[in-house]
């Protein structure tokens, strides 16, 4: 079996094929990784259902196993997590942490078990400067000291804990880190430690953590708002079962695939609360779609719908399209608007203010015949409609821009080759097979 370190798979995509039928939205990558970190709050056995079999999950499992955590897959998408009685980071898998940014969220729960520890520098998508400032400030307010060394972060307990923490910036992973640290804070002077986290993010993966912790017995008030109040318990020990919910970013991929191929496509189990603004923008661009009544995900909280996307003539919006913290357009969904804009009549301004350099990857669509002009490192002008044609492109070292190119190739006439697709496999399970079942023609070139 080929080691993931050496994977260099390529996709050959025969574009211009009509899609049809229905496709089901898988469980969330980000939800899974945030839940993995949250499981370490529990000293008992945690069973997670609806966990995607993707490379990001595999890397996180490698990190957890290297900490002594017992992880067993009991079904295709179900696993159990049992922390050790005593943690040690001496053998932590630094290669795996170097591939995922989500390992940062281990700081909060590990601080309950270890007075001092080292965490190797983390990796993830390469999209310019990505600091840990929001994590550092929140965790320092919650009694930790983080020193950045050449190859690792050194985390120690400082003792001083603030009652209220204001998040430094809109960060989902930093919010979860703060929540997990607050969840394990011990009682003070005989009273439970209550922590207020203000400017907390309300995105789907953060809510997932809150729902899980509440089921675990951690008292949390304000779930779904910007202000959380958390009563810590460092001795939580329960056997618990929880189901991860569906991925709005994958649902947006399928919406985009239908648009790029001018196809009628039914998308099942789409988490609507995290797609409403995206759908409104698309509706104003001229997209026709139908939506079912809402029903609940297996976690009992997330609202799902079935969407039917219909072939539509699109026009560019007069306003710019930009991401915002929830409930705005999700920053992971913003790249999909670039290929969509290539099919809309007129000029679209897309502003990717959150990430340095990610907008540069958007210009790779020009290799397919698009007209994407870089205004600066954060903004592109897209002129449409453009007739896309097949080309050969190397995947960017970032998940969402890589998938953006793949879905654009579905709508490009002729054959395209997308090289080194590890970035895509980080976040999407069997995406080739699932797209082929609805009419795409994609094969792996080894």
Structure report:
The strands form six sheets. Strands 2, 14, 15, 16 and 17 form a five-stranded mixed β-sheet that branches. This protein has 446 residues and is of the alpha+beta class. The protein contains 14 helices and 25 strands. It has helices at residues 29-39, 55-66, 94-97, 107-113, 133-141, 172-183, 204-216, 248-260, 276-284, 337-342, 358-362, 399-410, 422-425, 431-437; strands spanning 10-15, 22-24, 46-49, 70-75, 78-82, 116-120, 142-148, 152-161, 164-166, 194-198, 219-221, 227-231, 240-243, 265-271, 288-291, 295-296, 303-310, 314-315, 321-322, 344-351, 371-376, 379-384, 392-394, 414-419, 442-445. It has two domains: 4-26 and 246-445, Enolpyruvate transferase domain (UDP-n-acetylglucosamine1-carboxyvinyl-transferase, Chain, Alpha-beta prism), CATH 3.65.10.10; 29-243, Alpha-beta prism (UDP-n-acetylglucosamine1-carboxyvinyl-transferase, Chain). Helix content is 28%, strand content 28%. 50% of the residues are buried.
